[in-house]
Write a structure and sequence with these properties.
By secondary structure, this protein is of the alpha/beta class. It contains 9 helices and 7 strands. It binds pyridoxal-5'-phosphate (PLP). Residues 21, 79-81, 106, 108-109, 157, 161, 186, 188-189, 209, 221 line the site of pyridoxal-5'-phosphate.
């Protein structure tokens, strides 16, 4: 069995504790990327079909990580921010619709919703505690108090990036289902460290880049879109991989 230091051959001069930002690469991440770079420089794209298999395997593993079975619900984006933008600009908003976020969301999970003001969509901020000593009420109650008949979506981090506050996703999901509100979970601060049970949570959307607890390189993110929501999202990006018969 390899020791921790063998998995993470960090320079002895540093003690890398901050994982909430960008994880150091474990050796297996470095090896996978180095092997891929070497393969490109020696064989070019000869093994392209194998690469597509690897992509399918990744989607299957991500499905397992969030405890869902359907890999058709898993797609890949370039970042959490891009995944959030695909969702925000895919929904068919009506003027007057409201989106609830928390007061401490990472900017990626705030500015994209605020940008929808151009379509008459309002971003409503639920007050969240900044620390466990805070006097602010339970986060679920705080979200609940923001719900109106116009609330269309709640977008919340599973774990807040600054305070580390972990939301009760089961309770939030029940609340959203009760009010028929879409639920979008930014899981980048928890996925890989804390189990995510989509079978229970039943989120409509889940987003998470791999560079925190999944310990991958930046630039490859999970974008989960529940089957029932897929045909409700407008397409805002187009590419040749999205057509069935790629030759035509
Ligand atoms: C909660 C949260 N969401 C989104 C992001 C940004 O992720 P990305 O760089 O993949 O867009 C971060 C980065 O720290 C984050 O903490």
């Amino acid at each position: 069995m390899q020791s921790f230091n063998e998995h993470f051959p960090l320079d002895p001069s540093i003690c890398y504790l901050n994982h909430a930002a960008v994880s150091p690469w474990p050796l297996r991440t470095t090896n996978a990327l180095t092997d891929f770079a070497k393969e490109n420089s020696t064989f070019g794209a000869t093994n392209y079909l194998k690469w597509l298999e690897t992509e399918q395997q990744l989607r299957a593993r991500l499905a397992k990580l969030i405890n869902t079975h359907d890999t058709d619900e898993i797609t890949l984006a370039k970042s959490t921010s891009e995944a959030l933008s695909i969702i925000a600009y895919g929904i068919d908003w009506q003027a007057g619709d409201e989106v609830i976020i928390s007061s401490h969301e990472f900017p990626s999970n705030r500015i994209v919703w605020e940008s929808l003001a151009q379509f008459g969509v309002k971003t409503v901020i639920a007050d969240f505690p900044t620390s466990s000593a805070s006097t602010i009420a339970d986060p679920i109650n705080s979200i609940q108090s923001c719900i109106t008949k116009n609330t269309r979506l709640v977008s919340i981090s599973s774990v807040q990036y600054a305070s580390g506050l972990r939301i009760n996703l089961d309770a939030l999901s029940l609340l959203c289902q009760k009010h028929q509100i879409l639920l979008c979970v930014d899981a980048i601060q928890s996925l890989g460290a804390i189990p995510f049970d989509q079978n229970k949570v039943q989120a409509d959307f889940i987003v998470a880049d791999g560079h925190k607890w999944m310990m991958a390189a930046e630039g490859l993110a999970l974008l989960y879109i529940k089957k029932e929501r897929q045909n409700q999202l407008k397409l805002t990006q187009f590419g040749w991989h999205m057509i069935k018969d790629k030759g035509n």
